[in-house]
Amino acid sequence: MVRRHDSGTGRRRPGLSGRCGEEVLASRDTTEIGDNRPPAYELDADQQLILDQADRFARNELYPLAPRMDAEEWWPEHAFPEIGKQGLFGATIPEEYGGAGMDLLAAGLVVQGFGRWNHAMALSCVAHDNLCLNNIYRNGNEAQRRKYLPDLCAGRKIGALGLTEPGAGSDALGSMRTTARRDGDHYVLNGGKIYITNGPVADVLLVYAKTNREKGAHGISAFIVEKHFPGFRVAQKLEKMGYRGSQTAELVFEDCRVPAENLVGEEDRGVAVVMSGLDLERAMVSPLCLGVAERAFELSLDYAKTRQQFGKPIGSFQMVQSMLADMYVLVETMRTFTYRTLAAAARVEIGDGGRGDIHKLTAASAMFAADSVHTVLDKAIQIHGGSGYIWESEINRLFRSTKLLEIGAGTTEVRKMIIAGELLKDLRP
């Protein structure tokens, strides 16, 4: 984590607020963390405070919302502003723009804490905080930062990323059909996006479109689109198997007029924005999976201690003990890999993503975390038996979440291609 920045306002931002947050920031005012910092797979005292605060807030404020969010695909409009008030958005954003001035590991710890108690809200926070907010900060100009970041950090506005299209999933860049053409002081966007997290509720969207078809994947540009721009609409809200409270939509752009000043970076240079952003997105898959797995293990351990069969707790049976031991090993290995990857990804410079060790590492971490949480939840359902198969149970809600992160942010198969491609890059012609 980095030393906190002065906001220039002469006052302390509560930033990861409350008593824990104040202690984190106070320690940053006087101490530069250097060679005495614990290894990347362990948390130092400041980082543990961040995780504890996120966990406490999520348990008290977000956990009670989870059953209704799942049952009705309901979106609690008050949640994002409350998260913003706690300073739990914008961990990677300097304080001058309303953020906390920390790093990607701090952002991941917030997601881990949220994932334990309301994984649907945690997913929406990742799309908002990492895919939209952090991308605009990393790739936008100063005017764009000052216009959009403060409201996004405060949770007054909700962010989303528009990349995937109906005919372009794993081949999101090469098969992209959404186009943007310059028309005076505007770009005119036409096309559609699908499976967009936060799509139905987003105020600000980072959208990719082709500005030069002849260049293929290298003719893509990024734009900031606001929900009120003429020609933009939500075509439909999509109902899902898991993460149901996290809103997902199909979006349509019909001669959508976007001010030219909302071009992010240079025209036809959006592929660099996409690739570095995807590596950071994959890094954030892991703490979400970790939070879900931690909660599933906790529920299963408690159930094994209290559920009686044949006159004794089921935890006394070796078959159940075997499943619990396997779950414990997976959760602890996920934790180590997650923290290592977040620490490495935090050092990625703008434009450095999409290749090299970090490309391989984030793909591997996401693949392992998604596979592991699937296995943990499968064993958790087995331990819970019939009660785990009931739709309304918490463990069932967690189980239905497992498949998404084997698909989103690049499928397991794509992750394997990335890993193998980097391992065998010397064989490329």
Write up this protein:
With 429 residues, the protein is an alpha+beta fold. It is built from 12 helices and 10 strands. The protein has a 4-stranded mixed β-sheet with strand order 1-4-5-8. A 4-stranded antiparallel β-sheet has the order 2-3-7-6, with helices on one face. Helix 8 runs parallel beside helix 10 and helix 9 (318-345) runs antiparallel to helix 10. The protein is globular, with a radius of gyration of 21 Å.
Task: Jot down its keywords.
single chain; four-stranded mixed sheet; 429 residues; alpha+beta; 12 helices; four-stranded antiparallel sheet
> The biggest beta sheet, please?
4 strands, mixed
Mean pLDDT comes to: 88
Number of beta strands: 10
How much helical structure, as a percent, in the residues? 40-55%
> Gap between N and C termini, in Å?
39 Å
Number of helices, counting only DSSP H or I runs of 4 residues or more: 12
Poorly predicted parts? 1-15, 17-36
Strand content: 5-15%
Overall geometry: globular
The largest sheet has its strands arranged as 1-4-5-8
